[in-house]
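Table S5 (text form). Sequence records supplied for joint modeling of the two-component complex.
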Amino acid sequence: MKNSMTRPLLFTAAIAGSLSLYSLVGKPVLAPDPNNAGLKLPAGFGALVVAETGGRARHLTVTPEGNIYVKLNRPKDGKGILELHPAATGKATVTGGFGGYGGTGIYAKDGYLYASSDEEVFRYKLDAKGEVTNPAQPEKIVTGLLNRGEHESKSIVLDNAGNLYVNIGAYSNSCQGKDRQKGSMGIANCPLLDSAGGIWQFRADKAGQTYGTGTRFATGLRNVVGLDWNAQNNQLFVMQHGRDQLHDIFPEMYDTKQSAELPAECMYALSKGANAGWPFLYYDPAKHEKILAPEYGGDGQKLADPKYLEPAAAYPAHMAPDGLLFYTGTMFPEKYRNGAFIAFHGSWNRAPEPQKGYYVVFQPFKDGKPNGQWEVFADNFAGSPEKLASGRADHKPCGLAQGPDGSLYVSDDKAGTIYRIMYTKK
Amino acid sequence: MKQTLLILAVLAGCSPAAFAQKKPTPKATSATSVPTAAVLKGRAVYTQYCLTCHQADGGGVDGMNPPLTKTDYVLGDKTRLTKVLLNGLQGQDINGEEYHNVMPSQDYLNDQQMADVLTYVRNSFGNKASAVTAAEVKAVRATNKK
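The corresponding structure-token record, covering 572 residues in total, follows.
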């Protein structure tokens, strides 16, 4: 009797207590970290660290329900894909993982999660909560893709017509007889382009596809890591990693300074059958010309055959664009809508010149085409000017994804940090 | 690590002794005190031919080019090390890490240049190991099977 009397009383007291506490502390709200996660951002933007995964976080994707899936380059504790559920504050802990393979590509679309190893593409079913229902038994959509160690990552994206696009990087710098060897000339017609150095198209819903059943959608692309579908004009855009080592291979034609500034990292707008011209040419960002590669008879001046695709935009050499995202959200101001964010992982092949990159760039677009000068959007992933110049960066931005509220997520494959960038100005 | 130490100890023990048979040296020099001239010349070779990939600090590039700081290759067997330059290297894990770039053959370097650059690498970036001589490189090159 006594008990049944006091219990409800206690209970009410407890509720009253927690309510007053609640009003004192306030509801947990989404807010940037006091130091904006160490990033330098345009006015009005803030950033927070969603999680420190400690893994080599390559690409990432966010479901409409807000679940974050991160693809690791190398499995951590047997998990190649990490699952994060952010709390109301935006902070998350790794709640699970699956997929015991390393890789780069991950992309969620229409109730499925696609992920790639360096040879295959898998597909998982997502339920109404954005949870994977078959973590141990994904469908194998594509198998047997070439992986010879160099330019091994297979990035992926889908269009709106049920097609899957996969990058198959060339296992070579410039298709020399001996890869990266000083003075070695290019192999005639570069036969490796038959199975690599391009973008292959597959059906997104059909298991067991490989080279024979896919289509070489575009060729002459040395290595692509960042790619995205532009829904405004229904076109695939890719970021090519330009060739390295012009000076090392042809020291009599290029000095170390020229080698650091050549060639541009290029964005290409692809249509079926496009040929961007690697290894026969490179793009000179100062001359705005396609130059015949020295491996194929070039001298640093001779122009390449004009039949090859013109880049849609060009960026400084060797900065390694690893992520591309068309921003379709409404959280950021109008100027960002339908424009492109590009994650530049950061250079190494500029040495002995100072390194560059380690930032996220914004490229304005109009009517599905680059329009106007690009600008640095999120900077200081490196941590300091010295770390930037030496290439000993604390963080290396790699993947980009858009959250359901329009936040921009960035992954880092150096320290494994997951960032969320928000527009905070009211 | 143990192995490397052992090799170093053996080297330190052996080479001055071998030297001493011909010409007794007044001051016992340890094997790790290497000719400064070789290191200086080796640095020039490094800057010209290795720095882009292995970087100025010898720290390499994550996942691309391995560091030259205290690796088994750098501090270990000189024949194996010399062969990395002669033949290049690809697809080998270095101290448990994968690297996705290609080390091209550096066989255009002459014996002296190879000896100098290896001596430099073995005595820079925190490394300390015996010098590599042109005669040693020559011997490895003569028997090198690609």
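Note: Chain B is about 50% helix and 0% strand.
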